[in-house]
Design brief:
This protein has 9 helices and 8 strands. By secondary structure, the chain is α/β, with parallel strands linked by helices. Strands 1-2-4-3-5-6-7-8 form an 8-stranded mixed beta sheet, sandwiched between helices. Helix 1 links the parallel strand 3 and strand 4. It is globular.
Amino acid sequence: MAYTLKKESNYSYIEVGEGQPIIVLHGLMGGLSNFDSVVDYFSPKGYKVIIPELPIYTMSLLKTNVKRFAKYLNEFIEYKGLDNVILLGNSLGGHIGLYHTKQYPAVVKALIITGSSGLYESAMGSGYTKRSDYEVIKKKAQDVFYDPEVATKEIVDEVYASVNDRNKLIKTLAIAKSAIRHNMAKDLPHMYTPTCIIWGKNDNVTPPDVAKEFNTLLPDSDLYWIDKCGHAAMMEHPEEFNKIMDNWLRARNF
């Protein structure tokens, strides 16, 4: 289902449902629509699902980093008057969620990460030397998924447009450097927020070993695998992803 984008103050976001807030954090080149199935599934179940549009390409270059995005997220949470939020993040969104949880632990009730950066990512900002070659970009987009058919023409076109926009490419490279700089290996053992880790067994961007390391380092975490699945589990196996997340939230009384 297509949802209306609200625009208030400095924020653009989707908000559906009432109840316990789940804030969804998209990845570097992930559109808000990537989480339609999450909105469809959880908004009728007593959750208010909110997907803010992160200012990945609109921040000044000096502020284009994980730390500033986490601050932006906290400012958004304060603007909305929320507390005890559940954060769900994919890829860069997972990293922002983790960093935000480190900085503002009292605000976060629980965290769900899938294909998250923060420990290792396979060259988030590299491989664009042939960015004008549509077929090369198409292959990169397909490699994100176990099933290349998930990378629709619309998704490929969006990635192609982004990497061929000089401003966006510069910001992408800045974010990639920031993700490496903000490695969280030393922080994770001190983060006690309950965390659900949902990972594709065939993730090429953040391989399975990354999920295992997150699970080892985070004191209160549970790891779940999805077979025949790449970097964006909520897109590739939405039903299984939602069931895992739902069962975990129920088991934790969230």
